Amino acid sequence: xxQKGGRTVDYxxxxxxxxxxxxxxxxxxxxAYMERVFRRVFGSSxxxxxxxxxxxxxxxxxxxxxxxxxQERTLDMEFVVRQWELNPMGNLHGGILVTAVDMACxxxxxxxxQTKAVSTVHLSVDFLRPxxxxxxxxxxxxxxxxxxxxxFLTAEVFLKKDGRTAxxxxxxxx
Length: 174
Known about the structure:
This protein is of the alpha+beta class.
């Protein structure tokens, strides 16, 4: 199935972080390195024209890279609610919101772990307000602590138009 203007996240970048092209350069600050990697991860997804074949929900969701902070260990991703993502009450389906949180936390964990694959061990989401069709929301993932095998993250979901918090989350990733 094709999706007009579909966006994808290039998870293969995380396989290449050890290559000289994607490794942190000697004089490159952490923030610049983090932005360079995330722009590449989301690079192919920023195209507005053309059709792409989509097979995964994360492609259909058309996420966008917004910003990141190396110092604060955060990643912001943006999503626009589309008709197919609605529940019977006409709001964003909770499972789609959880998927957005899982994506942001997983991508941030991959960056700091310098690995292709991470697994979600636990993810808890509190839904605070509905999000309507056409609204844009931002997921801000934050890496709070990372040990040798396990990482602890929190996330906030807020509306782009007014900054109101729509959900909060915490998760554990390995």
